[in-house]
């Protein structure tokens, strides 16, 4: 599955991008400090700097995924989007 976090425009040359998984009220890192975390390290990757691709998805991947972008040189320094993923 591919989840996309589109950055329309930014003056920050290298904005910080993080992906988090929120399930049952608990938040865990998926992509942090420019690397995959936990079990995502072996089955996920970032494409084009902003799209999260999760391979071999299971029902345990059903969650809300949050993409957070921090662009310190921009007027709006941080933004986020939540994507609900449901694996049947």
Automatic annotation (TrEMBL):
It holds the Pfam family V-set. Residues 1-79 form the Ig-like domain. One of its GO terms (cellular component) is plasma membrane. One of its GO terms (biological process) is cell migration. This is JAM3 protein. It comes from Centropus unirufus. One of its GO terms (molecular function) is integrin binding. Signal peptide: none annotated. It comes from the Eukaryota. SUPFAM superfamilies: Immunoglobulin (SSF48726).
